[in-house]
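Final report, section 2: Outcomes. Of the targets proposed, Competence protein CoiA-like protein is the one most frequently requested by collaborating groups, and we therefore present its record in full.
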Amino acid sequence: MFKNPIALINDPKEGEIVTPSEARQLELKGINLNYFCPCENCKDSERILILARSPKGNYFFKHRPGFEHEWKPMTLLHLYMQEYIAKAGRIHIKGFITENFKVPQQIIPIIPLMTIVEDNSHENIRFDATVFSESGLKIAIEVVVTNDITKQKAEKIRESGIPTIRIDLSHFYFDNRLKCQSDPEFVKSHTKGLFEDIVNQDWVQKPSKKEVREHFKFEEKKDEAGWGIVALIFGVIVIFGISNSCQGNTFKSRSYFN
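The predicted structure is given below as tokens.
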């Protein structure tokens, strides 16, 4: 029998995550809920799950007869990260460099009510989440657990121009594979730290020059090439001057001895 370690409450796409033990406690309080499978490719088009009890007294979620399917082990970590992002009030940004700016590491306040999980409102691109900063900047977030962003999707993201951050959880997943596959409490307890750790983060598409000016703390990047040219010209002038000076002294010496 295939068992799901979690379910979504009342909504197959945006419902809150619940474990079997949590669902049982809610039912004991007289709260009736509908449970749904988090897997997008669920065999059941309605994605319905049923809270069941094993002969040993352990509760678990199961599919309706005929709709059983494998549980994708990386789904647990991916879902809990999306749930955390949906409620987050800020995002830690890793420092980055563009042609014009040096942008230091910083914290950007975001508006939770405007966050969209599984955002498919953009043509040919579905983001794991999109958030809006308090200053009005839209940032897309891609969460990587086992399968990285494809080359084709990365190209589409760059073509869209939407600033997009990639959060790579693959190292954490492979270091804690068994717990990430079956222990919701373990995964949930690490989502905040994983989201805020900039070591896991890089840019698929960096913000534009205008977006950096309007939404980030930044330093103007010095024209290093220009300063290099100035230094080269100055060096040539100095060498030329020294050379002339030496030639003059040599001429005078020869004149004196003559």
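The chain has two domains: 7-63, 75-219.
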